[in-house]
Design brief:
Helix content is 46%, strand content 14%. By secondary structure, it is α/β, with parallel strands linked by helices. It folds into 2 domains: 269 residues; 260 residues, Nitrilase/N-carbamoyl-D-aminoacid amidohydrolase, CATH 3.60.110.10.
Length: 555
């Protein structure tokens, strides 16, 4: 019986679906083979070739599960007994619903092509029969289907970014972060435009393969399937090279010193180590400030307890070096009509102090990490907290805050932790007169895995989308900054050349002339116009397919 089951599995579509998911997973850092992302979506549809309904959804789910188990394997490095593997599987199981829905939608949208066959499990014969029926349709119909597949993928990414607080980690376009000339058009469409291009091209390649199988006597039949994506890619490369060359020269610079303390997560959770880790940060900062600078930055949660002693130590450091300082710490505020000492809200916050040691501004994190910073249904199901690495929930902030360095005539906005993976949050933080963005984060949760590299790749797109430099100050790797075109600059490494060790560095951030506003990108001005347009297109394609199916059933 077991031998029969194994043979049945091998003959099924699941090995192809798993291969597609794994290829998509390793297209992201650290492996980062970007070319696999151009193959994987088409391979997912190939796995579901000739399938419909629940079967196509199930195949897509297997592919999605393989993808997320591969790309999110760094979750296993969280130093909490039992939780990592449960969180890894649970999060992957949820996220896999989106590729599953895409495969189902794409299969449903092509239902008018009549290429379902009577025995879809009959290996190569099934694929060949489906290819023949697909190529029997007109070129315009196949191209419209490929475009609608791209639109459906983007529509689901728009949903993923917003549903249940959103988790837009590793949107498909992020896999192309190394292709700087190509991804410059994210300044027009946002990262979802890159996702669309990859899926459209991948499905067009599938149609080209079908043309070769379906019309073997026409050797050049496949060329018609890829000509439009190919021309589009060439045009976008030309646009990208032009944008990279047109980067304006800075009229002035801001000296920014970044401190990376590299505190292990196990020590961050150990209150007995609070004093030692704080003193380590002060010592690193004293060494860093031997060189004159304008702004000193510590990462997210750098201050273990923002109490009177730490306040005095920080303000003494600031005044003695006459430097602006931005750092992450918890912010506490009593609730309205509070009646007890426990009746308060706790925020994950970024504090800005001026060179006189006076508090200048506070930004409170708006998008919290589920099971990391808040526990869903905590009031009704309090036992859930025993299965998470945190024992209580933060309160989300409600607005972006511009942080102004008045005597330096510079303005910035902070994004805390994974807020920089949200395109809409990056855009909201980038006001017309913002000079640069800052991400304060602690990726020490995940050891020396792929999370740091994936996080930085996501942040890179916020710089491109908004045409602003973006500084990343992390507890441990990857402390660096991106210029307005997404080029990574000045990566902090320790004495051994590792990005994960403690250290500091001073960088020069280009600024506009005092009072001048940086020319906004099209995306910064108009937001997710492309993403919502794709959502409308996907809905129209699905509605058209549904009406067509109903008419056929009525005949």
């Amino acid at each position: 019986m077991n031998r029969i089951s194994v043979q049945a599995f091998k003959r099924s579509r699941y090995p192809t679906a798993i291969a597609a998911g794994v290829l998509l997973g390793i297209s992201f850092p650290q492996t980062g083979v970007a070319g696999f992302a151009w193959i994987a979506p088409g391979l997912m549809l190939l796995a579901a070739w000739g399938k419909r309904g629940l079967e196509s959804f199930r195949i897509g789910y297997v592919a999605g599960l393989a993808h997320y188990l591969t790309s999110l394997r760094w979750l296993l490095l969280i130093p909490v007994t039992g939780f990592p593997i449960l969180g890894w599987i649970a999060l992957s199981a949820y996220l896999a619903l989106y590729p599953a829905a895409w495969v189902w939608l794409s299969s449903f949208q092509i239902s008018n092509f009549k290429f379902q066959i009577s025995n879809p499990d009959d290996g190569a014969h099934a694929w060949l029969a489906a290819a023949e029926r697909l190529t029997a349709r007109g070129w315009s119909g196949r191209m419209l289907w490929a475009l609608s597949c791209g639109a459906s993928w983007v529509a689901l990414e728009m949903l993923l970014t917003r549903l249940l607080g959103g988790f837009p980690w590793n949107l498909l376009g992020v896999s192309q972060h190394r292709l700087l000339p190509l991804i410059q058009f994210a300044s027009l469409t946002g990262v979802c435009g890159v996702s669309f291009l990859v899926v459209w091209t991948s499905v067009s390649l599938l149609c080209a393969a079908a043309a070769v199988l379906g019309r073997p006597n026409l050797r050049s039949a496949w060329m018609g399937e890829i000509i439009l994506p190919f021309v589009t890619i060439v045009a976008l490369f030309v646009f990208g090279f032009h944008r990279l060359r047109q980067t304006p020269a800075a009229s002035r610079e801001l000296s920014v010193t970044l401190v990376q303390p590299s505190i292990p997560q196990t020590l961050i959770w150990d209150v007995r180590e609070n004093t030692n880790r704080f003193l380590q940060e002060i010592e690193l900062s004293e060494r860093a400030l031997a060189e004159k600078t304008d702004l000193l930055i510590w990462p997210e949660g750098a201050v273990p307890q923002f109490d009177q002693p730490s306040y005095i130590a920080i303000t003494n450091l600031i005044r003695s070096h006459h430097v602006w300082m931005l750092f992450g710490a918890d912010d506490v505020e009593p609730r309205p009509a509070a009646v007890g000492r426990e009746d308060y809200d706790v925020y994950n916050a970024a504090f800005l102090f001026d060179p006189q040691g006076r508090h200048a501004a506070t930004y409170r994190k708006r998008s919290l990490v589920i099971f990391g910073e808040y526990i869903p249904l905590e009031k009704w199901l309090p036992f859930i907290k025993w299965f998470t690495p945190v024992q209580g929930s933060y309160t989300p902030g409600n607005r972006p805050v511009q942080l102004e360095l008045r005597d330096r005539e510079a303005k910035t906005s902070a994004l805390i932790c994974f807020e920089d993976v949200f395109p809409q949050l990056g855009r909201e933080a980038a006001a017309p007169d913002t000079d640069f963005l800052v991400n304060l984060t602690n990726d020490g949760w995940f050891g020396e895995g792929a999370a740091q590299w994936q996080h930085a790749a996501n942040a890179q797109f916020r710089a491109i989308e908004n045409g602003l430099p973006l500084i990343r100050c992390t507890n441990t790797g990857l402390t660096c900054w991106f210029d307005p075109c997404g080029r990574r600059r000045d990566v902090l490494t320790d004495t051994l050349g590792s990005i994960y060790g403690p250290g500091f560095m001073t960088v020069k951030i280009p600024l506009q002339a005092p009072g001048a506003e940086r020319p906004p990108t099209f995306y910064n001005q108009h937001g997710d116009w492309f993403g919502w347009g794709c959502t409308a297109m996907a809905a129209a394609a699905t509605l058209r397919a549904g009406l067509g199916k109903r008419r056929k059933e009525a005949m």
